[in-house]
Specification:
3-stranded parallel β-sheet, 109 residues
Length: 109
């Protein structure tokens, strides 16, 4: 069976983390990359969360950082919902890897 490649655009907080873990484990799909945007929390947190999810899942997936905020309208930080780091404020060691140098927009193309 040929796997369906997935490029996932996401802002990993606790909700997206569960979706990513499910995608990583789905035998019908191959996650080929993650493009990360700011969302409920800032880009520095969402990128860090994506990298850590890849690390703890032993997934060798490229992570591309996107825009640090919406292009048209400001969005309030919603750290009060998912925690300041988007992961319920749990403490975890920094991921070993960094995001790719390429911005998420051209990576999608």
């Amino acid at each position: 069976m040929t796997k369906i490649p997935l490029l996932i655009d996401t802002d990993p907080g606790v909700d997206d983390a569960l979706a990513l873990l499910m995608a990583f484990n789905d035998p019908r799909h191959e996650v080929v990359g993650l493009t990360i945007a700011a969302g409920n929390v800032g880009l520095q947190h969402t990128v860090r969360n994506a990298l850590k999810l890849c690390e703890v899942s032993n997934m060798d997936v490229s992570v591309f950082a996107g825009c640090p905020g919406p292009l048209l309208h400001p969005a309030p930080d919603a750290g009060y919902v998912h925690g300041e780091n988007g992961f319920g404020d749990i403490a975890y060691d920094a991921p070993a890897r960094h995001a790719e140098a390429e911005h998420a927009a051209p990576a999608i193309l």
